[in-house]
Amino acid sequence: MRTLDADLVLDAHAEVGEGPLWDADGGVLRWVDIPAGLVYGAGDQPVSMGRAVGFVVPRAGGGFVVGAVGGLYDLASGALVVPLGADEPGTRLNDGKCDGAGRVWAGLMDDGAAPGAGRLVCVEADGSVAVRLDGLTIPNGLDWSLDGRTMYYIDSPTHRIDAFDFDPDTGEMTGRRPWVTVPDEVLPDGLTVDSEGAVWVALWGGGAVHRYTADGALDTVVRVPVSQAASCAFGGPGLDVLYITTAAAGLSPEALAAEPHAGGVFACTPGPVGRPAHPYAG
User: Fold this and answer.
1) Which H or E run includes 123?
2) Is residue 32 within 8 Å of 230, Cβ to Cβ?
3) Phi and psi at residue 133, to the nearest 5°
4) Do 81 and 127 meet the contact criterion of CB atoms below 8 Å apart?
5) What gap in Å lies between CA 170 and CA 248, rounded to an integer?
6) Spatial contact of 54 and 68, defined as CB atoms under 8 Å apart
7) CB atoms within 10 A of CB 101
8) Pick from 65-79, 80-94, 140-154, 215-229: least confident
């Protein structure tokens, strides 16, 4: 097993840095600070959405869509694209990503993380919405195998990455099963699948990102010098840089003094490369 170290690339002091995404056209990393409602990567200053945000994804026709309280919004105009949970006070979006068919998959959760109140929804290109999973608490990282027929998914308090059989044509998920279990003292958070089919997962409370091969074996640990690693994604022109977003929220003054770069973005070049992000077809 290899052990690598990630270096600080942006001392952002984000409350909860999440949803990293490589914008190949712009040549920048886009990511969000959830409670601050900020989207980074669109210029020298982050864009404020005026509400808590969960993720940002590219749009097939150009531009980006942001998952935030109330639904999916166009990043440039701020216009509502698809309402999600708009009539449910105290509900916000958490992690989200697009599949190969251009659907948006988004986690809806109670802002206070009430157990069982969360769900995973699928947004089609025409804006129709279907609930694919319910009874979740903190719907989190997700991605697909190289052939698109296995979906990896995290509900953080389970301490697991689960696998589903996935139908790329219909978006149906079946055959849920535990795939990898992480130690009880950490929470699995955001994840990404690389071009070899291995899964990289950020460990909240673990100060690390773990890589699991397609058969579920841990083969690489990337150490991060802050405790709350939140998500990860590959970027750079060759998609060979692993970017890791982190969080400062909830840390005591003593912990913040020990982790002065909490909430920063870290990176390393681990060898394997990533895959381009799928855009939303709507």
Assistant:
1) strand 118-123
2) no
3) -140, 145
4) yes
5) 39
6) yes
7) 15
8) 80-94
Q: Coil, strand or helix: which one is 257?
A: helix
**E-assigned strand segments in 24-103:** 28-33, 38-40, 47-48, 53-58, 64-68, 70-74, 80-84, 91-98
How many Cβ atoms sit within 10 Å of the Cβ of residue 7? 11
Nearest to residue 121, comparing CAs of 113, 130, 112?
130
d(C-alpha 249, C-alpha 247), whole Å: 6
Residue 258 is classified by DSSP as H
Residues that are catalytic: 189
The number of helix segments (H) and strand segments (E) in the chain equals 1, 25
Q: What is the pLDDT of residue 125?
A: 96
Give yes or no for a contact between 214 and 166, defined as CB atoms under 8 angstroms apart: no
**Domains of the chain listed by start with CATH number:** 2-268 (2.120.10.30)
- The verdict on pTM exceeding 0.85 is yes
Render pLDDT for 10-60 as a digit per residue (tens, 0 to 9). Answer: 999 999 999 999 999 999 999 999 999 999 996 678 999 999 999 999 999
Task: Specify the higher pLDDT residue, 237 or 86.
Answer: 237
Joined together, the tokens standing for residue 280 give: 């939303």
Rounded Cα distance between 56 and 100, Å, is 16
Asked if residue 88 lies in contact with residue 98, where contact means CB atoms within 8 angstroms, the answer is: no
Structure tokens at 51: 């509400």
Amino acid occupying residue 66: V
